[in-house]
Write a structure and sequence with these properties.
heterodimer, A: 72 residues, mainly alpha, B: alpha+beta, Beta Polymerase, domain 2, 6 helices, 23% strand
Chain lengths: 72, 163
Amino acid sequence: MNRTARQRLLDPKPGSKIAEARDFGIDLTMLAENLRYTPAERIKRNDQAANSMLKFEEAVRNAKASKKSKTQ
Amino acid sequence: MINLFEMARRFAEAEAKFVIVGGIAIRGHGGNYVTEDLDICYSRTNDDLKKIASVLAPLDPRPRNFQEGLPYVFDWTTLQHGTNFTFETSMGDVDLLGEVKGVGNYEDLVPQSLLVDFDGYSAYLLSIPALITAKRAAGRPKDEAGLKVLEALQEAGKEEGEQ
């Protein structure tokens, strides 16, 4: 039976490049999830993720600045 | 606000000749790496430089890490004075590459790319095998994870979105 790309990613054969990526630390469940989307949708999701990370970084910066001003 | 999709769509709308490479290309193929810049390899004819510049000019481009407060004039002739550029813009960072190591220039990349729909406009995305070639040629430790992702995706045999 032919397996889909998602199935191959979620259940890699021993010795395969997919298994190698898993052992390296790549989260294969995220790759499998991404295959549900079109290339354009994946790039839009990257933008959303990048903007979320920037907001998070800003929140951390603000928290650190606030903590610093309270201790002075 | 980062909007790399919209920037790429505008390049395509302007009929600029370019191929998306780097992290956004990996992401387009299904990678999970989050990137904050758009890397493109572009055609360097004067006509194409004008198209690239017409998209970037309204986005207030400045060289990355350019000293604040110093004036910077950008137009299409700016692009004549170099090959590779790294710009900050109001939509996010963009790297313009005249050539991709191990793969070649725009004309070399096109046959190794896929046409992807950007909300009604088509743009080339460098293929997984070509991205692997480029990553291997670059030989940078920071690319190792991206290379593993690309090899896994290639083996999984899926380059298009699954419906």
